[in-house]
Amino acid sequence: SDTSVPPARVRPLTCAETRRGDRRVVRSLGDSTVHVSATAPRGRGHRHPLSPPAPVRPQVSAARHDATFGFSAVFDAGTSQEAVFEGSGMRELVELAIGGFACTVFAFGQTGSGKTYTLMGPLAQSEAQPVAPCVLGLMQRSFACLLEQSRSAGLALSASYVEIYNEQVRDLLSPGPPCALPLRWSKSRGFYVENQLSVEFESLEGIAELLLEGSRRRRSSAHALNKHSSRSHALLTVHVRSRARGAGGQGTLCFVDLAGSERVKDTGSAGELCVEANNINRSLLALGHCISLLAKPRGKRAHVPYRNSKLTRLLARALGGSGITLMVACVSPSSRCLSETLSTLRYASRARSVTTRP
C-alpha cells in the first residue's frame, strides 16, 4: 500500500490584497507545519466544496482561529519553483512513471491560490518572449526529467490533454472547435476518454508547444479574485512506454489543474460565469465527498460514488485505486481568504489518510 502526506504551498500576498489592507494570517513554522491565526466573523458562512457537511452553528460576533497543520513539506512565499519540485517528491513520481506505474499529481485550493502557477508557471506567449527557467513549474521540470531518461532507456513518450468544462470532456489538442467526448468504462482500463488525441513528442520544445496550444484553448475568464481564472479542470497525461519489442504495459504521469472553488458573491460572477462556478463547485464537492469516504478505514467505508461527476470518474484510479498520487495544497495567506484556506488545509489533512494499492 502507498500512503503519502500532501505538501502545502502558501503564495505571497498580492498587490491588490496589500493595498486593501489584508493581514497575513498563514505562516510556515519551518518544520513542515503551517500555522493559521486570525479573528474572523463566525456564522454559517460558505461551505467549501472540498469539505464534508458541517452542523449549522448559531451566529455570534467573532471566532478566534488558531490552528496548526502538518504536511510532508511546506513551501512559503519565498520558495523557488525548483525547491518545490525537489521538495514535493515530484522527481520520485517521474521515476515511478518510467517504472510503469500510473502516477497523478494535482494542485487544489480556492481560485487564485497559485495552483496553475505551481503546475505550469507562466506560459510563454511567443518564441520572442521565452519564460525564465527559474519560474518553470512542476510540469516542465518533469518533462525535462522524462526526456533525459527516455533517450538512454529507449522510451517513447506521448501526451493527451483534455478539459472538463460544464461537465463536458473536451479535447484540447484536436484541431477545430472543442467538442464533447464520451467517457467510457472497461474492466481493464477503468474510466477513459474515448477518441482523445494522443501526440508523440521527442523534445522539450515539442511538449511545451502542446502544453501552450492546449492551454490557449482552455476556458478561462476574469473576475474580482483572479484575472485569469480557470473555468475548467484540465488533465494532461504523459504516456510512457518502452520501444523494446515485446515490452508490456506502460506508465503514465497525469497532471491535473483543478479549477478553484469560489464564492459567487466574492467573485462578482453573473450569467455564464455563475453557471461555470456552480458546475466547478459541484464537481469539487463530489471530489471532496469521495476523498472523505476514502479516508475512512476500509472496514467502515461506504460505496465511493465516483460516477457523481466526470472529474471523479477520471480520477477514480488515482484516488483510491492502483495509482500513486501527489496532492499539493495551495493556499492564500490573506485574512480575506481565511475560511477557504482553513477548509483547504483541513481537507489536505484528511487526504493523508487515503491509501492506494499501486
UniProtKB/TrEMBL annotation:
The reply to whether Nucleotide-binding figures as a keyword in the UniProt entry is yes
- Where is it located? Cytoplasm, Cytoskeleton
What are the binding positions for ATP in this chain?
Answer: G109, Q110, T111, G112, S113, G114, K115, T116
Q: Which GO terms describe its biological process?
A: microtubule-based movement; mitotic spindle organization; spindle elongation
Q: Which organism is it from?
A: Nothocercus julius
The GO cellular component terms are: microtubule; microtubule associated complex
Ranges where the Kinesin motor domain occurs: 3-354
- Entry-linked Pfam families: Kinesin
Could you list this entry's UniProt keywords, alphabetically sorted: ATP-binding, Cytoplasm, Cytoskeleton, Microtubule, Motor protein, Nucleotide-binding
Task: Name the family.
Answer: Belongs to the TRAFAC class myosin-kinesin ATPase superfamily. Kinesin family.
For region Disordered, the annotated ranges are 28-58
Cite the InterPro entries for this sequence.
Answer: Kinesin-like_fam, Kinesin_motor_CS, Kinesin_motor_dom, Kinesin_motor_dom_sf, P-loop_NTPase
**Gene behind the chain:** Kif12
* Domain of life where this protein originates: Eukaryota
Q: Per its record, how is this protein called by name? A: Kinesin-like protein
Q: State the coiled-coil residue ranges.
A: none
Show the GO MF annotations. Answer: ATP binding; microtubule binding; microtubule motor activity
PANTHER family linked: CHROMOSOME-ASSOCIATED KINESIN KIF4A-RELATED, KINESIN-LIKE PROTEIN
